[in-house]
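Repro case for the chain-ordering regression, as requested:
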Amino acid sequence: MIRRLAGGLPALGLGLVLLGIWELYVRVGPVDPLILPAPSAIAAALVSDRALLWSNLTVTAGEVLPGIALAALLATALAAAIHFSVLLRRAVYPLLVASQAIPLVLLTPLLIAWLGFGLLPKLAIIALVCFFPILVATLDALAAVEPDLLKLMSTLGASRWQTFVRVEAPSALPGLFSGARVGVVFALIGAFFAEWSGASAGLGVLAEQAIPQLETARAGAAVTLLAALAVVLFALLTLAERRLVPWGARA
Amino acid sequence: MQTRLEPPGRGALGPGPRRVRSAVRLEGVARSFARPGAPPLPALERITLEVAAGEIVAVVGPSGAGKTTLLELVCRLQAPDAGTLRADPAALMPQRDLLLPWLDALDNAGLALRLAGRSRADARRIAAPTLAALGLAGFEGRRPPELSGGMRQRVAFARTVLSGRPVLCLDEPFGALDAITRMELQAWLEAVLLAQPRTVLLVTHDVEEAIVLADRVLVLSPRPGRILAELAVAAPRPRSRTDPFLVDLREQALEALR
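-- result from build under test --
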C-alpha cells in the first residue's frame, strides 16, 4: 500500500510544480484573474461552493456511469457479432469509423433538439463517444486469441459457440477493460459538452453559467471535479479488472 | 533412402503374430502449403504409416520436417492434398500447454467433459482421479500461473486423456521444459502408458525421448518430410537410457537423420 502511494509521488510532485508556476503567473503576470483564475482561487471555490459543486457532480456522474455501461454493452454485443460475421465487419466497420468523424458540436444540439433536455440525449452522446474505443479494443482482443488455442478447442470437440464462450470471450475481457478506460475520458468530455449545450444541472451547466457571471474560479472548480471524476473512474476500472481478470497482463 | 514400411500388423508391436486393428493409417499422404506469389511449399510427401491400437509410435525429424502437420492431419485440423488417411478420433497435446488461465487445474483437465455437455461438478468429479493419478493431488485448485512447467504439461496431458479420444497425438510434449524436468516427465509418461495403454503418436526432435518411450520410431527427412527409416524398439519396459540396445538404436536413428 505504501509502495503504491509512493508510486503516485512523481505525479503529485509534477502537479504541485505546475500549480506553482500557474499560481505565480496569475499573481505577477499580465493575465486578468477573472479570465484565468489562480489555483488558490479555484481551491477556495471548491470549498465555498462545495454544496453546489457536489449536487452537480452527482448529476454528471449519474449520466456518465450508465452511459459507459450502455456503451460497453452495445460495443461488446456488436464486437461479438462482427467477430462472427465477416460480412457484418465489412458492412459496419467502415461506417462506424466514418461516424466517429462527425463533430460533436454538430451532433449534440441535434440530439438535444430530438431527445429533449433530460438524461436521454446525454446517455446517447456519452454512449456514442465511448462506444468506439471499447469496440475496437474488444475486437482486437478477440482477434488476438492464439490460433493454436482455437485448434486445440476444435480437437477437444468444441463447437464454434463453445469456443467463443469458453475461450474467446474471457480472452477479450482485458481488451474490453482497456477500451473502457479510454472510453471514460471521452465519456466525461461528452457529458460535459452535452450539459453545456443544454441541461438543467451538471458540472457542464455550472461552468456554462459561471463564466458569463465572471465566476471563473467556480468554472475551474467544476473542471477540477470533472478531472477528479476521470481519475476515480479510471482507477475503479483498473481495480475491477484486477478483480475480474486476474489472468490479465496487468495482474 | 526410404525404408519401406513392413506390412500392417507385423513388426508393429514387436513379438506376437496377432493382427492388431490399426488406429491410424496413412497411405501416400502429401500436404503442401499455398504461398502467395510462389509455388506451394511441400510439407509432407508420400507418407505411409500405420499405428496399431495400443501402440506408441514416435516420429522424429529436424525442425520443419512437417511433424506438426502430420499430427494436425491425424487430428483432422488439416486435410491431406493427396493420399488416404483413416484415423480413430484423436486428441492433440500441443507443445505449449495452452491451459486456460481463468480455469484451475481441475477445470482445465476436465475441459473436454464440459464441452461434451457435462456439468462443472460432474466434470470435476470425473477429472479428479486422473489428475491425482498424474501426481497432482492437492493442486486441483491452482491456476496455471501457479503451477510449474512440468505440472502444467501434466494437466495438459490429463486434458488430452480426458477427451476420451482413443488416439493421443503428443506434439513435442516436453519440448519447452528444462532437461531434468523433461527426463522426469518422460519416465512419468512411460509409467502412465504402461499402467494404462493408449494409442500414441508422439512427435519429437529428441531421438532419445523417442527411443525411451516408443514401440516404434519413424525418422522423417527435412522438408518436405518423408519417412527415411523405421526402427522397432523391442525393449522391455521400464526402459533404461543406458541399455546398450537402446544406445545402439539411438545411433541408428541419428545416422538416419544425417
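Ordering looks correct now. The radius of gyration of chain B is 18 Å.
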